[in-house]
Automatic annotation (TrEMBL):
Keywords: Transferase. Residues 2-143 form the N-acetyltransferase domain. The lineage of its organism: Bacteria, Pseudomonadati, Pseudomonadota, Gammaproteobacteria, Lysobacterales. It comes from the Bacteria. One of its GO terms (molecular function) is acyltransferase activity, transferring groups other than amino-acyl groups. This is GCN5 family acetyltransferase.
Amino acid sequence: MTTIEHAETDGQIAATFAVMQQLRPHLEQRRYVPMIRSLMASDGLRVLALADEGAVRAVAAYRVMNMLYCGRLLYIDDLVSDGQSRSRGHGAQLISALRRIGRELGCSEIQLISRTTREQAHRFYFREGFEIECFHFRTKLEV
């Protein structure tokens, strides 16, 4: 049985770590729940988890924000399916749930960024109706 639910308790958040770490290998398990909790409090981050047969198979971290150029939008920070269970529709199910959530929250669009090297992810996003609209520029700041 497949379920899609927001990870809200520390236990639910912790259960998403192994899948999230596949996308973000720098994350440390002991710091993961406090980091997610901090982002939830400061930035309104939400974590959506797809579980199949009782195990988390895909995770999306997202937030809702308002921008001058497009109004209210749902921004996907992270979207990852477990490498052991890819191509089973889990990512598409999360995108579908995020579309529903975005509409319910009055968002005009969904946005995300994806590294240029992630060609397999790009093919998935194109299949899901996403388009490349702009370049994303960044520069490192010396601290």
